Amino acid sequence: MIPAPRDPAAPVGELVAELAGHLGEPAVVALACDLLGGADRATYADELVYLTRLADTAGHPEEWSRVWGARTLLYAWDEGAVPVVVAGLGDEAWRVAEMCLKVATRHEVAEGAVRLAGHDLSRVRGHALRLLGVAGDTEHVATVRKALTDPDEDVRRHAARALDRLEQRLDLV
Description:
Number of domains: 2
Order of helices and strands: HHHHHHHHHH
Oligomer: single chain
Structural class: mainly alpha
Distance between the termini: 57 Å
């Protein structure tokens, strides 16, 4: 059994680091991948306090376990998590897909982002474009250019920034 967090109100990144101090970072990555993959949250009741800052997660929808698992990967990472994050981009719950986009952006994993550039929710499209700007390659330029005509102004702004980043990173003119 692991001890309770020193400060349960600390930022999640600090709590994840504290948990890694108890379990080791590979174990934290493994439990995050397990949660993102749909594991029963009851399996990780003690650890969830570190990942959520909540003493009790029972009242939250099941998709939140997957969100919490993905968010943990912002702070604890191993390349072995890539397939689980890419699979999470296809999650039916938009919050899970959005968090996986954030994780993929942080760790520069572009695989799977193109399909979310056409998502129904503009905030998800924006995150997908941000990811393509950070980690995309020449085959993603057309997708980013297409988003310059998106009906949502924020998405168009993300597309313009992503295109600038792609052009700079890939030395495109």
